[in-house]
## 1
Amino acid sequence: MGDFLFAPHAPVTIPIARGGLFAVRRLYCVGRNYAEHIVEMGNDTRDPPFFFAKPADAVLVGGAAMPYPPQTADLQHEIELVVAIGKDGADIAVGDALNHVYGYAAGLDMTRRDLQALAKKAGRPWEMAKAFDCSAPIGTIEPAEAIGHPDSGAITLSVNGVERQRGDLADQIWSVGEAIAYLSQFVTLKAGDLIMTGTPAGVGAVGRGDVIEGSIARVGTVRTVIS
């Protein structure tokens, strides 16, 4: 242990579809990136993109069960395309942004919607609504060299086999390249960073025992059970 007060925490990793592990550094999330979802949440589609963060250890992999979090009566699902950054960069040009992408995965931005609503009303941060334990179930990462850079295709989510969300990656207001370029104006992106790129319409509540399954064409799936 050396001079550490306690043993350092193990790195957070996500399996790569063709072997190996992706070590997670930071997790950024794009807020409101599909027009229909913006409308269902009562917001303005003309607003520029904004970002919030989840801690790396919010990531849940391998289809593991997600504990129902405390202090909420309205846990909601959001299916999202996850971008895995494989090359460092700051002030990245849109035309160069995809060169910084290692691969893609399907993920869930789980949200304590009641706490988010209270935070919005009070003008407070969203962390307790978004950045709680196990709030980011993520499937395996598909390398871009194998699947390319998906900019269209179905993105769906079902609960207990009943479809709730359906959209298309082509419906994103801000493309992956634009999101990377914009975010990199504020922070230096590093290999190991993840970007969750927003959810289509149809978000809704889940409870204990519910099976959540998400799928993104060419990218893969994500699954968890609320325990």
## 2
Amino acid sequence: MPVMPSSVLPLPATVDREVGARIRALRQAKGLSLETVATAANLSIGFVSQIERGLSSPSLKALASLADALGLPIAGLFEARAPSEEAGTIVVHADQRSVLQLWRSGIVKQLLTPDGPDAALNVFLIILAPGASTGTEPYSHLGEEAGLVLEGAITLTVDARSWTLKTGDSFRFESSRPHRFANAGQGEARVVWVNART
């Protein structure tokens, strides 16, 4: 199991409960049944129920599927943070970033752009602990993505092709193409990752 990045000290049960509660609140606010969301996300009703109750840790693949089913960018599932009055919906100060901790996979996603479920463009700082990955099974979702490796190295797989990207390397691909990524080095990897809903 990967070791979480040193920049965060998650409490797994708390993280799972918070993520699940956000997903349930978003589903209910849209007036959608558990069955409707589970079917649209291609997940079992029981698994979605367990996620909502904080009993299961969703993978990035499951979260991307749930976000699509809810008609939201994945950033819409992040912990909500109130922006400072002077920043409003334009600026995000470093201490006000919304964070999504995928503690089981060793990945932390910090939202660098202002919160907003309707935002078409979201920029993240993704921190991958040594051994961290999105899993062996690729996933796909709506949109387009691009990124720049700031530190360390990652293995990016899109369709059946893989690349090892090091500091300074960058990428872009359609999110509908099956993809996955993993830390390819011994230390933390940091990537600026952009998701655009098309």
## 3
Amino acid sequence: MVSTPAVPNLAFRRLRGSRSPGEFAAAVRRAAREIGEQVACDARYIGRVEAGEIRCPNYAYERVFLHMFPGLTLADLGFSPRDTVRGRASRTRADVRTAPAPLPNPTPVCSDTGDTSEESDVLRRAFMTNGTATMAAASLGLDIGGAPAVAGTVPRQLGEAEVNALEEAVRRIRLLDDRHGADGLYRRAAQPLRTAYALLDAGTATRGATADRLHAGAGELAITVGWLAHDSGRFDDARSHYAEALATARVAGDPGLEAHAFCNTSFLARDGGRHREAVRAAQAGRRAATELASPRLLSLLALREAGGWAGLGDRTGCEQSLGQAHTLFERGPSDDDPEWMSFFGEPELEVLQAQCRAALGDWSAAARHAYRATVLLDPHFTRNLALYRAELAMNLARAGFLDEAAAAGHQVLDLMDEVQSSRIQGMLAGMVRVLLPKRRTAEVGGFLDRQESAASTARRA
């Protein structure tokens, strides 16, 4: 096939104005932080855009650029339509892989009338991005703003609006998870997932690119809901949702979705103590990801594999995987990095190394990596900041730095009014068990008293 020559993006160059590529890249990173995104933009990336090498940005960059230049469209910024660049519609039937045996549908989750207003409005905000999306959501049988939708009505043909609504649901739910944790969100996030799979089962999707996007959106939503289950301690539910996403990926012949499903499956297996499964799932994810031009995705999967080796006590395997992860990470970001990987930067690299060191019993090294993660992380990501600080506190306690552990524990408690995560609560409970025999010091005793009070309040709520 003859490749299309790159056409310089003069519109984007004009928007940069008199700023250097490096200065403009810094402005892009600042704009990303304003809306809760994480992009590793540098002068080289700006140069590639202006040279026309990047004909359409990934979704994270798209949101940042549209935030920087309100009122403009991607076309105004000099980019090509996404469906003409990504090439999903060109996939042939011969590319579709053999699907595994059918898996059970995701477990229905009833909403809780006691949800906070933030939680109960998740779907309404996710699907009310514009009038068209709202109408699409109604046709999908979703609850919009408390008003009854067209329950049980499935459109004969799906179009752009319905798929956009599904993709936006994934983004909004992930954003709320970043800020508030998974516990409350999980009770609300199952409805769009059930609807998406009902549409797939009914065969109502159009052919070509729209059908591909519906499969990808449903799979990503299954992974997102699986993560909410995972983070809130519902491991069996999470395993079912990840398996559903994997089946969807294989039916659609989507290696990116398959790699994502295996990545999360590896993470879940590690947390569940199934370390051999964690290694194998990560290796399967790496095989799927070789079809994609994303060193950062391969780096994350190498880290997942390292976590499995560490859980098995295999220091050599862990070190080899960590080395591969660093080599791949240093190749930098790519425009082909999946949208869901926006969380994966230096802070996450550090905290995953901390987890490996902790599993191997290297508590001081684990604490150093966890500390770097807390320093590097943008504080806008409240849930991850609480998680990283909890990791730091536990590692400090295990390493014998008790006062420092208690101080880090106080920082975690400072954030728990905003964050609902059973994972973090479990880490704090584990830290308490380590510190209880040492409560004679004022710092440790003060933290234990505060944690006990917080836990008691949570139980009464």
## 4
Amino acid sequence: MSRRQLKTIITCAITGAIHTPTMSDALPYRPEDIADQAVAAAEAGASILHLHARNPENGSVSIDPEHFKRFLPVIKQATDAVINVSTGGSLLNTMEERIAPAKWASPEMCSLNMGSMNFSMHPLADRYTEWKFDWEEDYLRNSDSYIFRNTFADIAYVAEQLGEGHGVKFEHECYDVGHLYNLKFCMDSGLFKPPVFIQFIFGILGGIGPDIDNLIFMKRTADRLFGDNYQWSVLGAGGVQMPFATTATQLGGNVRVGLEDSLMIARGKLAKSNAEQVTKIRHIVEELGCEVATPEEAREMLDLKGGDRTAF
């Protein structure tokens, strides 16, 4: 089974590619706001910052390296947190386009989805009648036809370009149990070296459902497949964010929060910031007898190359 650690890594996903500006005034999309919220989340206890970019003019999803350049150096200068650059971004772009920001930045970590899947946000569109920007409603409604492509060839390409080429380690995002088997195959093929960092993801339409039985099943499967060669974390989307994170801490796992995954701080109450979510989960983690990992401790646990070896 995965190694029982003494410290809990908190990852904070700052803005993502699911929620739109209409849904919350707290969702950052201007580079200065992404930077400010990321730094505040790190100060609150997040040792890893999972980062997407947005078009600063209208908040739409961006994979333009120029947009990343406007906040990554600012964050690095202000905090020692591990910076994790998304390779997801738009679901409609090629893998080469999706990894362009990471190839420029050469970060310590990148996210990597471990399988193709339906990935839809279209039910969210029915909750709103007025929109801040014209693109938002169509973006959400049209997602019912999206396939988030992550073939074995795509995964091998990312491993070569970022893993071998830049010494990047990955947040292996697993939205279903089959993704764990995909990762095992890739490890057996020599694409990824242990320890791997697996993000169990629950509650995204198209992926495994947000049931505690599913969390236990994913954990048992990972133990069987990876033994002591992995660390794991839990992402619960929407209303299950805090309950799933709390359960993960008691099972020896790490946690992920942030406005990418949920806009709420409690049932019916929007979060004021990413830092508010980090503060809440840190309080829970510590009240339940665990200690929060520092960025340096997270680097050691995940065998990262170090912040001094990035390109920004």
